[in-house]
Amino acid sequence: MHDLQGLDAILQPMSPAIGALTREVVTLIAGHPQLSGKVMPGWRSVNFSHAKAGYVCAVLAQPERVSIFFQRGSLLSDPDGLLVGEPGKKGRILRLAPGQAVPDKEIGLFLMEAIALFA
């Protein structure tokens, strides 16, 4: 189940390019059958969780980019080095800029692994 009511409001102050990229990423992640999503207006994000694995990731619309924050990203396999994060922190971020191809396959693999680790 997805509660995406409020997505328009958090995207309203963003550029059309950021809005379109955010919608593309949210639609991609919302298509995962085991995840539920909810708009979090205070964080300007859409958070996704799994019934057993808990909080998996969030999509954050930012002025220059869209970020996907993976809660336990430091545990995910990342052979292409797509995820960034601070040493010692468990979360990792995939940053996307308008015009950049969305790595659909890699995001799908990150989601499946994140769920499998804790479900």
How does this structure look, described?
- The chain has helices spanning 7-11, 16-30, 104-118; strands at residues 2-3, 35-40, 45-50, 54-61, 66-70, 83-84, 92-96.
- The radius of gyration is 13 Å and the shape is globular.
- It is of the alpha+beta class and 119 residues long.
- It has 3 helices and 7 strands.
- The longest helix is centred in the first third of the chain and has 15 residues, at 16-30.
Computed structural class: alpha+beta
Major β-sheet annotation: 7 strands, mixed
Number of strands: 7
Uncertain stretches of 5 or more adjacent residues: none
Strand content: 25-35%
SS element count, helices: 3
Give the topology string: H per helix, E per strand.
EHHEEEEEEH
Concise summary:
With about 120 residues, the chain is of the alpha+beta class. It is built from three helices and seven strands, in the order E-H-H-E-E-E-E-E-E-H.
